[in-house]
Each structure stands twice: as structure tokens, then as C-alpha cells.
Amino acid sequence: MTAEAPRGARVMNVLRWVLIAGLIVGAVLAIASVIAPKAAGTGAMDAAGAAPVEYRCPMHPQVVQSHPGTCPICKMDLVKVEPAAAAAGGASVTLADGTPLPQPVNLVAAVSRSLAEGTRAVVRLEVDETRVSMVHARSSGFLESLSVGRTGERVRRGQSVGHLYSPELIAAQTDYLAALRSARALGQPALATAARARLDVFALSAADVDQLEKSGQVQRSVDIVAPANGVVIRRDAVPGQAVDPNTTILTVGDLSRLFAVIEVPEAALAQVVPGETVEIALNAYPDAPRRPAKVVDVYPQIDARTRTASVRALVSNDVPARPLIPGMFGHADLRRTARQAVMVPAEAVVDRGDAKHVFRAGPDGRLTPVPVRTGARDGADVEILDGLAAGDRVATGAVFLIDAASVLGGGGKP
């Protein structure tokens, strides 16, 4: 006796065949949506004699329909393609292998024109290190007073900026007076020469030595004098502090000229030549004329983080109404001498990472991918160093779609 199949098994078999039939119908419809519309849209004219409106996939140019929809391959919305007659400035061209393009393209001629590269670089002002002086005591002792009370105060060369009480200096003066008395008593002035030289080491002035010889009285303190004209940019000691020759009491900087440190991008270093003059603008004085600065040197190191090199230029601080202050920021526009260059719109260049190319139009209207080497940018245009000559026509606009059509049509890489 034959066993009857369970009722649930019969239901599952029916559902399985229904699912298979649905998949077959869906596949047939998908194939028909690719093949049938493409055959219907291969240049057929409508009743009025105008080219039909087509809808194409941006990623798969072979997918063409006469009505809106989605691409059966990538599911992207199809893009409406206007008739060739309505594309102003367009040219009906094909790829070198005969693959038709999805729409007319614009062709632009490469031109040879003057190009002056320009780079805007950040500028900061710094003290000229060759005009910085430090005030030290010539002997150990105690700083009795300091006449310069704040940074930013101006001092003159030879000006007394404080007084030092030094037991060492008192002892040196005492020894000199004793040597001087012995030299006079014996009639041998040379006996006091060594003692006098010791006073010179302590920077006792000639006037102070003369006063010491006349009065015979030891000076309790000695003046500390500024070694140069400038502005106090740092104060490192206070009255009553014990100091020695290693102690920096004041730092004086001559601000009559400053260093403008220009942070130049690595790719623009060729635009900077020592000895030339650049113009800088400061953020503090946006309405002021630019100030000239002479390039002195280029730091022999690239900053690993910013990929810039520091370029130093000297700028005069000769406008009292708008003084330059170390630490100010601004910018400099670096430009090279103009040269002739072949230029094309930057949008015409396809960059695949390892190489660049453009689509050049031949006399027969066919586009051929041509490898190029690019140079400087100038607004919306880019310099072509190799690969094109002035007058060559290249495709612009939607070049990535043209590139995709080239690959799909067998053109491959140039």
C-alpha cells in the first residue's frame, strides 16, 4: 500500500514552483528592459523629426531607456539626456574605438599664455637675533637696584640700568690702592699695572678709576650699563637678588628692523630666492600699504607636520605710527616671473591616481585618451607640461563619464 505524502509537503512544493516561476519572469523582464529600449533608441526619430529623449545610467552608459527608471545593474536613477540638437556648444563625437558617447561633449582648445605662479604664505614677525644683547654682571654680588622696571622700556648704549654691590670688586679696588701707593713710594708705576688690569676685568670705567685714584675711597657699588640701544624684551632679575657673571639681568633687542619669517609650502620653495624682495601684509594693519622685506635665507629643514620651510626676510620698522611688534602675524604673496605655458581647464584632466590623461579630439571627431603631466594651477585652469600642444582640442565636462565609457567600450587606460 502506497503511503500518502503529508499535506504540508504538497503545499511547500507548490510554493517552491511559484517562487521559481517568479524569478524566471523577473529575469526576463530585466533583460528586456536593457535590450529592447536600447534597440528602440538607436537613433530613431519621432514623428516631428526630432531626436528622441533618452534616459541613461551615469555609471553604465550602455543602459538606455526612452522613459525614466532605474538602472537594472546598479539601481541608480537614470539621467535624462537631451537631444543632440539641443546641446549648445556640444559636439557629436565617438571614442577612438568607435564607442558612441551618451551625449554631446564640449571641446576646448589648449591655449599658450603667460603664467605667473603665486603662493600666499603665513608670516610672523620675530626679533632679529643679530641685534639682541644681554646684560650681565661682571662679578658676583647682589643687585642693589634696577632702574629699568618693565619690559618694553627703551634704553641707550652706556646707560646705567642698575647698581651692583660686589665684595670681589671692593677687594679689587683695595688691592689697586695698595699697589698704587707702593708704586708711588718706590717710583715704579709698573707695580700697579696688574692691579689696574683686574679692575678692567670687572668693567670699572675709566672715570671710576680716576675718581678712585683721586679720592682713595673704595666705591661700595658699581653701575651696570646697557651694551646697546634697544628695547627691554626680557627682565630676569629683581633688586636684592644674588647674581654672578652667568646671570642674565636684562635682554635688550634692537627693533629698528625685524625678521619676517615666511612659512613657505614645500611645493612653492622654488618661488623664493635669497636676495629678492617680497611684500608682506600684516593682520594688525589691514588698510596699510604692504611692506617690502628682503629675503635673507631659507632654513635648511622642512617641518614634518606642516610640510613648510621657514624663510627669513628683513623688514624695516620705520613707521612710528604703525610699529612692527614681534609676534605679529600676516601673509606674503610669493610670485615668480611670468612664463609661457600650455593651459587647459582643470576639469578636462582625468586623474586615476597613478596617471593623468585627457581626451583629445582628432580631425575625424574621435576622442583619444592622451597621457599628460600637469604643472601649476591658475584659477580654473591647469598647466600641461607634457602631452598636449597649443591648439589641441580636449573634452570638458562629464569627462569621468567619458572615461567610464572608454573603459566599458574597450578603450582601457591610455
Question: How is this structure best described in words?
Answer:
- This protein has helices at about 5-40, 165-185, 195-200, 205-215, 400-410, and strands spanning about 55, 65, 80, 90, 95, 105-110, 110-115, 120-125, 130-135, 140-145, 155, 160-165, 220-225, 230-235, 240-245, 250-255, 255-265, 275-280, 290-300, 310-315, 330-335, 340-345, 350, 355-360, 365-380, 380-385, 395.
- By secondary structure, it is an alpha+beta fold.
- It has four domains: about 35-85, no CATH class; about 105-115 and about 340-410, conserved putative lor/sdh protein from methanococcus maripaludis s2 fold; about 120-130 and about 255-335, Efflux pump adaptor protein, beta barrel domain (Elongation Factor Tu (Ef-tu), domain 3); about 135-250, OB fold (Dihydrolipoamide Acetyltransferase, E2P), CATH 2.40.50.
- Strand 23 (about 350) and strand 24 form a beta hairpin.
Q: pLDDT under 50 segments (min length 5)?
A: 34-49, 84-92, 410-414
The Cα radius of gyration reads 43 Å
* Protein structure class: alpha+beta
CATH class membership of the largest domain: Mainly Beta
Assign a percent range to the helix content.
10-25%
Number of strands: 27
User: Which oligomeric state applies?
Assistant: single chain
Any idea what the CATH architecture of the largest domain is? Beta Barrel
User: Might you state the CATH topology name of the largest domain?
Assistant: OB fold (Dihydrolipoamide Acetyltransferase, E2P)
- Which strand-content bin applies to the residues? 35-45%
Q: How many domains? A: 4
Distance between the termini: 75 Å
